[in-house]
């Protein structure tokens, strides 16, 4: 049972926009901690996608963006491409458990 | 570009000690900006933060693992290590070493699968 809750799966057609939610509690996201996002391609290590306040590491396209409100956060992917098919994880800081992750969301590009 | 690489035995029996080392290249582990972390992923599951060490040797562990856990650093060899005692099948996972900057993990190793089985 992950501390942060994500939908197990989402899907979208090429070119569409999809969002992945990440729900926390008052001891993590709701405290004001930022939420970070990672992309994990099959058989690979997670890769940082969003950090800070909606910043992207070099090489990450601006099709990816993050937002946060209250105890939840979202990752939006616009102009969906086949190469975006992967697992996506949110991560934040927690007052009691330090660094916490979501259970992951599998994105399928139809 | 910093690179991290995990190494260690891939198969353990219950009650043994899991030992993994993460060798860092392309950057100094003694850089004060980073915290050197271990994260694991159970088969088909999400990510679990295990703990981290600063180059000075200070550590912070996940409370759920703290009683079995030791993370150490060897700055001369630019590497850090994980020891998890008294393993069970529930410790079967892919173990990643990662570099934390501020509150996010910006570089990851490729992962090491550790299987605990009798």
Rg measurement of chain A, Å:
13 Å
Mean pLDDT across all amino acids of chain A: 95
Number of helices of chain A: 0
Oligomeric form: heterodimer
Beta-strand level of the residues of chain B, as a percent range? over 45%
* Main sheet properties of chain A: 6 strands, mixed
Break the fold down into its secondary structure elements and pairings.
The complex is a heterodimer of chains A (110) and B (118).
Chain A: E1 9-12, E2 18-23, E3 36-40, E4 47-50, E5 64-69, E6 72-77, E7 86-94, E8 98-101, E9 105-109
Parallel strand pairs in A: 1-9
Antiparallel strand pairs in A: 2-6, 3-4, 3-7, 5-6, 7-8, 7-9
Chain B: E1 3-7, E2 11-12, E3 18-25, E4 34-41, E5 47-53, E6 59-61, E7 69-74, E8 79-84, E9 93-101, E10 104-108, E11 112-116
Parallel strand pairs in B: 2-11
Antiparallel strand pairs in B: 1-3, 3-8, 4-5, 4-9, 5-6, 7-8, 9-10, 9-11
Question: How would you characterize this protein structure?
Answer:
The complex is a heterodimer of chains A (110) and B (118). Chain A is mainly β and 110 residues long. Chain A is 0% helix and 45% strand. Chain A has strands at residues 9-12, 18-23, 36-40, 47-50, 64-69, 72-77, 86-94, 98-101, 105-109. Chain A is globular, with a radius of gyration of 13 Å. In chain B, the strands form 2 sheets. In chain B, strands 2, 4, 5, 6, 9, 10 and 11 form a 7-stranded mixed β-sheet that branches. Chain B has a 4-stranded antiparallel β-sheet with strand order 1-3-8-7, with no helix packed on it. Classes of the chains: A mainly beta (110), B mainly beta (118). Chain A binds chain B through residues 2, 33-34, 36, 38, 44-48, 51-52, 57, 89, 91-93, 96-104, and chain B through 37, 45-49, 60, 62-64, 96, 100, 102-106, 108-111.
């Amino acid at each position: 049972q992950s501390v942060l809750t994500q939908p197990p799966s989402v899907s979208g057609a090429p070119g569409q926009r999809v969002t992945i939610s990440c729900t926390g509690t008052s001891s993590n996201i709701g405290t004001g901690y930022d939420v970070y996002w990672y992309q994990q391609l099959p058989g690979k290590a997670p890769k940082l996608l969003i950090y800070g306040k909606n910043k992207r590491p070099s090489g990450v396209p601006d099709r990816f963006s993050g937002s946060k409100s209250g105890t939840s956060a979202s990752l939006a992917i616009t102009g969906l491409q086949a190469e975006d098919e992967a697992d996506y994880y949110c991560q934040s800081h927690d007052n009691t458990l330090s660094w916490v992750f979501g259970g992951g969301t599998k994105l399928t590009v139809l | 570009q910093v690179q991290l690489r995990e190494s260690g035995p891939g198969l353990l029996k219950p009650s043994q000690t899991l030992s993994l080392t993460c060798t860092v290249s392309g950057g100094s582990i003694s850089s004060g900006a980073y915290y050197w972390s271990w994260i694991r992923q159970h088969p088909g599951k999400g990510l679990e933060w295990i703990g981290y060490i600063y180059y000075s040797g200070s550590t912070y562990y996940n409370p759920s693992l703290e009683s079995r856990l030791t993370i150490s650093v060897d700055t001369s060899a630019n590497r850090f290590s994980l020891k998890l005692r008294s393993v069970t099948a529930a410790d079967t996972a892919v173990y990643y070493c990662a570099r934390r900057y501020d509150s996010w993990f910006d570089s990851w190793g490729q992962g090491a699968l550790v299987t605990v089985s009798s």
